[in-house]
């Protein structure tokens, strides 16, 4: 009785898959809607590469491969930004790596792939800042205090102790501790020659680094 | 402003409060209106505003009606604001403070600060979209997306028509997909219900069905942890594939490296991160020559059974002593390891008492622990 139902379902699914396989691969909007709809019903189509959805629709391969590309970009750029990168920059670098003939990849696709990568215990995190996200790819401890300072820094790419005290109403000591932690983790750089007081820059937020290529050496270092 | 509906302000069952902030003023587009001092509440489902002076005056917007949000920094004499862009009001919407409005956005002005944290939480709720998974009563509309016949801001008729057709086509495909997914869920539930009457073997088989339908493993009776037949096979395959790469890398690799290596080699029919983890969890139980290890930091690695990380620590101590002191990066370069694993080894050495740390803004540096060696 049960197996009859399953067989019927499998046949329906195969038909459905052959109709929509192309669309899933080509249409980011369809992917978003498909994923959201599955989430509403309580189904995770990306849970296993051996699943109906991933195998038949090819949804799985699309996201798992994207995961590999994301890991490689983050590793290659880690020495520059300490393991923190904006979603925009990640998007640009991933698109470059995929080449002209690859399928279109949206920021939503990246976010979903990254959420899956968390299972590998890699320390992948997604931090909302301004209107976008910072992607963390190293297991650095970032609590709410650190996150809030990162968000403050998003506007100008840097932050100062005075700014933190004015906007967040913190004591000097609390501000300094957070900034020291970011320095230690390699996420922030100290600029003592800035006008006024010391500036703490976040390389992850440097917009003019966006278009810089990943060098061949960086790519080699990424995965020994 | 015509999107708001009057409400009692009481949260529904399953609706949770996320954050609230006093001293918030609402603007209809750019215009100031009479709602100038209220408490703004964010729940999993709605944005609610209650007048501070008159608590009966309370209104809400479902989060599903928000298209996107922006921040507006504070200026001289001006508070920081959040701009909320909204979908048009539903034709059958309940009554609210305004019947109509020419604006498709509102502004929330934070006169007593709190804008940064509120914005962060609102962004999170917009990302997580919990209202889609947590049903509440009908009075909170959770209709998603634009309604049919919505007015567009710009129009070039031919292109619009094509886009509309494409949208309709996508919607049709989505509703087909939805039927399939709902069917899979109901089948999965039926399988779960049969749990009591089946044997061990059948349990494993049904777990596979559930997993393949994208439903996380709910079964309690287990022989091999959360694994299935598929994961057992995969574990054996991995043992074969990873033997040589592990030997080449000093007997240890992070799970991230393994994920990339294995999937690059496969080319298609790739493994999901969960597949990999579930298979690796079975390595030891299946008595394979590799094992999964989780460090205190949460970093996960695969080690050869023959690899003794604790012994590697002894040689790490020698290396650090020779150089006086080393950072993770320096050690990684010397030994030819990834920085991630180098750091884990030095941390383990510290845990075992062989190394001490010097944690400064210039980085984390490790020294031989002279308290141990020179007592």
Can you give a write-up of this model?
The complex is a heterodimer of chains A (224) and B (375). With 224 residues, chain A is mainly alpha-helical. Chain A contains ten helices and six strands, in the order ααααβααββαβααββα. Chain A has a three-stranded antiparallel beta sheet, sandwiched between helices. In chain A, strands 4-6-5 form a three-stranded antiparallel beta sheet. In chain A, helix 4 (59-81) packs across helix 5, helix 4 packs across helix 6 and helix 4 (59-81) crosses helix 10 (216-222). Chain B has 375 residues and is an alpha+beta fold. Chain B is 39% helix and 21% strand. In chain B, strands 1, 2, 3, 4, 5, 6, 7, 8 and 9 form a nine-stranded antiparallel beta sheet that branches. In chain B, helix 4 (229-248) crosses helix 6. The longest helix of chain B has 37 residues, at 157-193. Chain B starts with a strand and ends with a helix. At the A-B interface, helix 1, helix 2, helix 3, helix 4 and helix 6 of A face strand 7, helix 1, helix 2, helix 3 and helix 5 of B.
Q: End-to-end span of chain B in angstroms?
A: 75 Å
Distance between the termini of chain A: 52 Å
Q: Please give the largest β-sheet of chain A.
A: 3 strands, antiparallel
Estimate the helix proportion of chain A, in percent.
Answer: 55-70%
User: Which regions of chain A have little confidence, pLDDT < 50, spanning 5+ residues?
Assistant: none
Output mean pLDDT of chain B.
81
Number of helices of chain B: 10
**Structural class estimated from helices and strands of chain A:** mainly alpha
DSSP, total strands of chain B: 15
Order of helices and strands of chain A: HHHHEHHEEHEHHEEH
Percentage of residues in DSSP E strands of chain A: 5-15%
Q: SSE order of chain B, as H and E?
A: EEEEEEEEEHHHHEHHEEHEHHEEH
**Largest interface (CB < 8 Å):** A-B, 73 and 74 residues
Overall, the morphology of chain B is extended
Computed Rg of chain B:
29 Å
Mean pLDDT of chain A: 82
Q: Quickly count the helices of chain A.
A: 10
Widest β-sheet, arrangement of strands of chain A: 1-3-2
Q: Which quaternary structure do these chains form?
A: heterodimer
Helical content class of chain B: 25-40%
The count of strands of chain A amounts to: 6
